[in-house]
Design brief:
- With about 110 residues, the chain is α+β, with helices and mostly antiparallel strands.
- It has one domain: 3-Layer(aba) Sandwich (hypothetical protein tt1805), CATH 3.40.1530.
- The chain has a 5-stranded mixed β-sheet.
- A hairpin with a 4-residue loop joins strand 2 and strand 3.
- The two termini are about 15 Å apart.
Length: about 110
């Protein structure tokens, strides 16, 4: 199976968010080909949640899991820590009061 480059996936994800009128932007640009992606959902009330793609050990499928959740400053600290381990990491910030991130939609879920 051919895998999408990180840059292509990020571009497609940002476009899907734009089509749903959900503001989002890249806060850290990672490796264009194989960089991992974090998605930080900022609910604009001082709270945030950061998602990372992981493998479900039971099914072997890729899934989005919560890396950090709670006070935005704490979530930001978790993102900084991840970037210190992986400088090729992409970070996308999604801003939505309703908590929409679209990561559970077809084509984005895994």
């Amino acid at each position: 199976m051919t895998r999408l480059t990180a840059e292509f996936w990020v571009s497609a994800y940002l476009r899907r968010l734009q089509l749903s009128d959900i503001p989002a932007f890249v806060t850290s640009k990672g490796d264009a080909t194989a960089g991992a992606v974090l998605v930080k959902l900022n609910s604009l009330d001082g709270q945030a949640c950061c998602y990372q793609r992981s493998f479900d050990l039971m099914s072997g499928e890729r899934a989005w899991v919560v890396l950090a959740q709670g006070v935005e400053a704490d979530v930001d600290a978790a993102v900084v820590k991840q970037r210190s381990f992986d400088p090729d990491l992409w970070v996308i910030e999604v801003e939505d009061r309703e908590g929409r991130h679209l990561l559970d939609e077809p084509g984005l879920a895994g």
